[in-house]
Amino acid sequence: MSASRRLPNFSALRAFEAAARHENFSRAAEELHLTHGAISHQVRALEEELGRPLFVRHGRQVKITSDALKFAQFLGKSFADIAAAADAMRASAVNQRLTISSIPSFAARWLAPRLGRFIDLYPDIEVVLQSSGQLQDLARDGIDVGIRFGRGNYPGLVVQRLMGDVYYPVVSPHYRGGQLPAAPQELSRHTLLRSVEPWSPWLRAAGVDMAEPSGGLMFEDLSMLIRSAADGNGVALVRHVVAMQEIASGQLRRLFDTATPCPDEYFFVSPPGAAGRPQVQAFRDWLLEEIAAFQRQQA
């Protein structure tokens, strides 16, 4: 269409189409949240612009002319096409969004530092990263991907194992003025920080005959546990994946060679309705490549 072709006022076209469909200015006003007078004004302005009457008026009663009825039907179809195109644009925008829910420790310490690489590869995908330790209803909450740490039993979801993890003790190099435990058997004389993950499996693996620590503060958030250890408050039993940043930076030092496998593992889960979406498949493939590269670095 030529850019110079002058179109009638869009508001006037909407007012006329609604009035024609209802054959009543008051009902058209209700539909468009306007006054009766505003609808009448818009219709008269359109009549003046087109140079012909669109309604025959008998007091407050109006009857559309035959030519105007054809015009209104054409407008109705055009407005429906515009609405459909707008819906498609909205759906396209939603389809390019990827909502990820991850356990907080993995989200903050492993995933978030790497996520920029995925965004660089797929700049058209809007990534929303949520941190949650709860087992959400992913489909109900509009979440495309969940990263979970557990045994892999997630009914109703598409599940793929990502990787396992191991536990070992860490401590600040400044703990007790640098007088760190030299052997696992010395841990009984030191402050063992507690979390939801028990010490007993690691103590047994290290050959230490010692009861599970009790009393004092228990950390449910592994990030807070790591922060407390880095502050020199005691020895912490941590997962490698979530503590490696502080170890690499020197804020924490790993103690001893013994590591015990975690009974839980990391899993990629997705509602069946989301699992086939291109952005979910792209993220899964990218994540598996990142994990493979990470594991090669650790080997």
Descriptive overview:
- One of its GO terms (molecular function) is DNA-binding transcription factor activity.
- This is Transcriptional regulator GcvA.
- Keywords: DNA-binding, Transcription, Transcription regulation.
- With 299 residues, the protein is α/β, with parallel strands linked by helices.
- The protein has 3 domains: 10-91, Orthogonal Bundle (Arc Repressor Mutant, subunit A), CATH 1.10.10.10; 96-161 and 264-297, D-Maltodextrin-Binding Protein, domain 2, CATH 3.40.190.10; 166-261, D-Maltodextrin-Binding Protein, domain 2.
- 45% of the residues lie in helices and 19% in strands.
- A 5-stranded mixed beta sheet has the order 4-3-5-13-6. Strands 7, 10, 11 and 12 form a 4-stranded antiparallel beta sheet that branches.
- β8, α6 and β9 form a beta-alpha-beta unit.
- α1 (10-22) packs across α3 and α1 (10-22) crosses α4 (66-95).
- It starts with 9 loop residues before the first helix and ends with a helix.
Mean pLDDT across the residues is 89
**Fraction of residues in β-strands:** 15-25%
Top-tier CATH class of the largest domain: Alpha Beta
Number of helices: 10
SSE run: HHHEEHEHEEEEEHEHEHEEEHH
Q: Helicity, in percent?
A: 40-55%
CATH fold-type name of the largest domain: D-Maltodextrin-Binding Protein, domain 2
The CATH homology group name of the largest domain: Periplasmic binding protein-like II
Oligomer designation: single chain
Q: What is the count of distinct domains?
A: 3
